[in-house]
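Researcher: Sequence of GntR family transcriptional regulator follows. Predict its structure.
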Amino acid sequence: MLHPTPTTVLLREMILKGELAPGERLAEAKLAEQLGVSRMPVRQALPVLAEEGLVVRAGQRGYAVRAHTREESVEALHLRGALEGYAARLLAEKGASVELLKQLRALLAEGDALLADHTMTAEVQIGYASLNARFHDLLVTGAQNALLEGFVTRCNLVPFVAPRTVAFGHKDRRQYADIIAYAHRQHHAIVEAIAARQPDRAEFMCREHIVTQEHSMGAQWL
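Model: Prediction complete. Tokens:
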């Protein structure tokens, strides 16, 4: 798996905000000038965005923004929330293993440390995106339901749906830290509900968590 960089974060948000339109060819030199960086960070970021499903190959060496609609992303996001809610319900009903709860709580502690200063930089955003992906992967795989995992994987192929693809559409970047801190508190609540064998609450918190992700994308997505 390729690793995102601050340039990846900036390009991802440009796609979310429509500053790079669906179908638009991406010229490295132009993007580098817009972002105030050299061409190399842009060249390194584009394959990461392709892996995330946000851009596609265009010609032998180029890329273009993947054509997608707001409705497609929102529908897939809500479906992912329903599926993960079902996974959390299964875990709460059956009882999560000691090892799974240990791994989930380790991620909670990692997130607590990452967000302790309540500041938002590209590095913190990248770190949280990785943590978020690992948390949701544990939630789904922990349910031990291959069909469920397959459906979630298909949802995650839609742009801006995968937990790793954290992006913000708000103009006020000061809101980022608040949104991520709230999302992380929801992680805590999901784990608490699973550990307490509360299936209704575990499922509800997963569905509510998806609403937080949708809101993070900005007013144009609501």
